[in-house]
Structure formats: C-alpha cells, structure tokens
Write a structure and sequence with these properties.
The structure holds 2 protein chains of 2 kinds. By secondary structure, chain A is mainly α. Helix content of chain A is 78%, strand content 0%. Chain B has 2 domains: 37 residues; 202 residues, MetI-like fold (Orthogonal Bundle), CATH 1.10.3720.10. In chain B, 80% of the residues lie in helices and 0% in strands. In chain B, α7 runs antiparallel to α9, α9 runs parallel beside α10 and α10 runs antiparallel to α11. Classes of the chains: A mainly alpha, B mainly alpha. At the A-B interface, α1, α2, α5, α6 and α8 of A face α1, α2, α5, α6 and α8 of B.
C-alpha cells in the first residue's frame, strides 16, 4: 500500500505538469530577487539600504577591477589558509590521538566536545593583546575555530572503524603501517572531508569577524569601511564575493577529498 | 605488535586488568583526571604569572581573574548581561523556530519544493551566514533588532532541515493506523505525524539554539550593544583585563552548561519516547 503510494508520488514528481524541479528553482530565485527589488523600491526602508541588484552588480564589477581589492583579498586569503592548515592539522593530530587511545579519548575528548559549540569570537580581545592588530590575531582566532570540528570528526571517524575490518587485517597479518594505509585511511576519508568543510567555513568566519572588529586590511575590514561610509552596494558586493568563495571551497573539498574509486562524500 | 591493534576484546581485557591493579595516578577515573588537568593548568598559569614568566598585565593570574569575576558579580553587571543575552538568544530561537518549523513543514508537504529547495537550505546551513550582519545592521540599526535577526537567521537552516527530516521519517505504519481510524488530515498531522517527528525536531531546535547563542554573543561583541558580548568588548576597551578574562571564561562556562543541559534533555526525551 505505502510502496504503491510512494511509486505514485515519485511518478507524480516527474510528471507534475508545468512545475519541474529546475523551473521551481528558477522561480524561487526570481521571487527572492523580485522581493528584494520591491522592498528596496517600496520606500519602507531608507533610500539606499536595499540597493537594486543592478547597482550591486555594478559595484561588484567595480570592485573586481580595482587593484586595492586584491590587496585585501590577499590578506584575507593568507589568514584563512594559514589558520585552516594550522587548525585543521592540529585537529587531525588531536583527533587521531583521541580516537586511537581510549584512555586519552575518555579524559580529553569532553573538553573538545564541550568547548566546540562556544562562541570563539569572545577570545578575540585576548588574541589581540597576544598577537597584535595585524594578521596574527586573525590567524589565531581562525586556527582555534578550525581545530574543534576537525578533532571531533577525526576522533569519531577513528572510533567508527569497524572491528571486523581490523580483525580481517589481523588475519592477513598486516603490519601497523599497512593497517593504517589499508584500513584506517580509507575509513577516515568521509570524516576528513566533513571536518575539512566545516573547518574551512568556520575559519573563514573566524578571520572575517575579527577583521570586522578591528583590522587594518582584509575583506572584513573592507566591508566594514563600506558600511561606515554607507556604500551599501559595495558592502554587499564584498559579502557576495565572500560567499561565492566559501561555496567554491566547499565544492573543491567535496570533489578532491576522496580516494580513487570512491564516490564523492556528499549526501 | 599484536597488542597495538585496538580490537574490542583486547581492550575489554586490558581494561579489566587495569581496574584490578592498585591505585596509580595515571589510572584515576577520567573525570578525576580532567579535574587534575584543569587544576594543573590553572596552577601553572598562576605560578607563571606570579614569577613573571608571563606578563601579568596581559594574562592576569587566575586569582586576579577570580577577583575580577567577584567584582563584576558584585556590581550586578554580569547578571544583567546574562539576562539580556539569554532573552535575545531565546527570542531569536523562538523566531527562527516558528519560521523554521513552518519552512520544514512546507518542504515536507510540497514534495517538489522539498526536492528543489532542501539543498539550498543545506547550503545556507553550511554557509558563513553570520558574515551577513552588516546588512542587518544597515536595515535594523545598531540595536537588539540586528542581534535577534542574526540569531534567528543562524538557527533557521538547522531547524528547517531537522523538521523536514523528522516529518519525512515518520513510519508508514503509524500513518496507516491513523487511516484505519479515519482521521482527518488535520488530526492525522497533530495526533500522529507531529508527535512522531518531535524528537528529531527537538534536535533541530537544540542545534538551532546553540547557533543562536553563538551568533547573538558574536554580534553583541562586534557591534558592542547588549549583553555578554558587549560586556567583554567594553571591559577590553577599558583595559580591565582581569574582569575581561573573567567575562570570557564566564561566557564559555555558560555555553558549556547550556550545551550540557540541552544534551541531557534530549537524551531523556529520546529515552522516554
């Protein structure tokens, strides 16, 4: 009964007349765009608060053709990459340790588990004192942010390696190096990909938020400047650029973090 | 060599052996080891700050931070800040919850919309949405409106996704029972679907509330308006570092306590189902 209905509804999904998934998506996008334009033109908000998409597009082109923009971009890119590598690397190391040793996991993992969902941005005043207003404090915040999700994902991944596989390895009398290479590494690819994606997103947040707060350069600083001088279209152009970069990073990680022959890790 | 492989049986055996051994500090229960680690770190910090290995102005000793905490507590600042942040976070989560559950319901109900837009919501859930706060700052101004809007925005994607997941996952058997009793569509939803999906929806609300708190405190800190985030930013601006450290640790402890409570609550809800 239920199965028949499921087949019916999936059949209806493919043939529900005019509306297909792609048409609905386009309609959704156009609706959002129209709502934005209408809200901007309605006079409900002060003039210039919701600039028309044409103005935003112009601002984006202007931004991308100015050389100063690339200086800010380079600063932010270095901060994000360094903190992603440092925080992610430390997270992988800690995760392997916590996952492999039951004792260490029992003792230390609760620290990471409970510190992970705290707002890291509140540490910024300390980091500003320790590392200065420049890139150091931003990298430090990004590193702290990226560490936690990575460590938790890897530790859970190590623990989830099936004991059956390990016993199979034992039967074939694999050396420890072979066990790591042939059993642990393939099993760790999905948690690694998840960890990398979260770590990248969160190190972007960490670096940019600290740039918003106090900095001399970087995309967050640039957006803040546009906000203060009320160049809303330019500010939005910077934000859109940041979101596109973050999305591209996600896609790249999903594409490349997998072993040969494995399917992409996305759901 | 063979002992290195963490096979479950070996582990159980070694645990049993360990537990019969006499007292050894390395074999204290995990919670005691954690307390020792914390006490050791605090003690080390205190000693280093006292003998000047770390600068006591920029990293005041724990005793100084404790004094700062008592001072904040005495002035009532920390209680006011906590109350304001709590109200803002719960307000944001309520707002995000209403829209999120409605959105999740629509994505579940209109199958085609679910197929078309669930991936969009998932993308929003992993996007750094908090970076949008200058836009909300422009729309709402430098006040609680921006903070609550950012909190609500932060928790909505998780609640939408979990609501849809919960409603989609209701077992067909339960729905058929409802049909047997010839319930109306409305009764079917309120008496069967919604209660059955509630544990999953609660998980969404719990995650959403965490995101709301993170966003609320973050935006408070960034725009220096409101509760705990503002308190920390303000103490930092006044170079009152002992009190600032106290504020930071307080925020961390509050969010840990909150996370712990909601986690327990969820486990209890799931077990008493």
């Amino acid at each position: 009964m239920a199965a028949v209905e499921q087949v019916k509804s999936s059949y209806a999904l493919q043939n529900s007349g005019f509306w297909t998934v792609n048409r609905l998506r386009i309609a959704g996008f156009l609706t959002l765009l129209t709502l934005w334009e209408l809200a901007g033109a309605s006079g409900l908000f002060f003039r210039g608060i919701l600039p028309s998409s044409v103005l935003i597009a112009k601002a984006l082109i202007e931004l991308l053709s100015s050389s100063a923009f690339y200086v800010h971009l380079a600063v932010t890119a270095i901060e994000v990459l360094v903190s992603f590598v440092l925080g992610g690397g430390a997270g992988v190391a800690a995760g392997l340790l916590l996952g492999a040793s039951k004792r260490a996991g029992d003792i230390y993992e609760p620290f990471i588990h409970y510190l992970a969902p705290t707002p890291k941005i509140v540490f910024l005043p300390i980091l500003l004192v320790l590392f200065g207003v420049g890139m150091g404090s931003k990298i430090a915040l990004g590193t702290i942010s990226a560490f936690f999700p990575m460590a938790l994902n890897i530790a859970a991944g190590v623990r989830q390696v099936s004991p059956v596989l390990l016993r199979v390895g034992k039967t074939f009398s694999l050396t420890p190096a072979q066990t790591v290479k042939m059993i642990y590494l393939p099993a760790l690819v999905p948690p690694l990909a998840t960890g990398l994606r979260i770590a990248l997103g969160i190190s972007i947040v960490g670096c940019l938020l600290s740039e918003y707060k106090l900095a001399k350069s970087g995309l967050g600083f640039l957006a803040g400047q546009y906000y203060e001088s009320f160049h809303v279209a330019h500010m939005l152009a910077v934000l859109i650029f940041i979101f596109v970069c973050a999305a591209l990073g996600n896609v790249l990680i999903e594409r490349f973090v997998r072993l040969p022959g494995q399917r992409p890790t996305g759901k | 060599m063979r002992r290195r492989l963490p096979v479950a049986t070996d582990q159980a055996v070694s645990d049993a052996v360990i537990s019969t051994k006499p007292f050894r500090p390395g074999r204290l229960p995990a919670w005691a080891m954690r307390l020792l680690v914390i006490a050791g770190a605090v003690g080390l910090w205190e000693v280093c700050a006292r003998i000047g290995w770390i600068n006591p102005f920029t990293a005041p000793p724990p005793s100084g931070i404790w004094d700062g905490f008592l001072r904040l507590l005495g002035e009532g600042e920390i209680a006011r800040a906590l109350a304001l942040t709590t109200i803002e976070a719960f307000g944001a989560a309520a707002l995000g919850g209403v829209f999120g559950i409605a959105g999740g319901y629509l994505l579940h109900r209109i199958k085609l919309a679910g197929v078309a837009f669930t991936s969009w919501v998932a993308a929003a859930a992993s996007a750094p949405l908090v970076l949008l706060y200058p836009l909300f700052l422009v729309i709402f101004g430098r006040n609680a409106g921006t903070i609550i809007a950012m909190g609500a925005l932060g928790c909505m994607p998780a609640i939408i996704l979990k609501t849809k997941e919960g409603l989609d996952g209701v077992r067909p058997v339960l729905l058929n029972v409802g049909k047997t009793f010839s319930l109306t569509a409305r009764q079917q939803f309120w008496m069967i679907q919604f209660p059955a999906a509630l544990p999953v929806i609660f998980t969404g609300i719990r995650i959403g509330l965490l995101f709301a708190i993170i966003n609320v405190v973050g935006v408070e800190f960034l725009i220096a308006v409101g509760g705990l985030g503002y308190l920390i930013a303000n103490l930092g601006d006044r170079f009152d570092y002992p009190a600032m450290y106290a504020g930071i640790f307080f925020v961390v402890l509050v969010s840990i306590a909150f996370f712990w409570i909601t986690e327990r609550l969820e486990r209890w809800l799931l077990s008493s189902k």
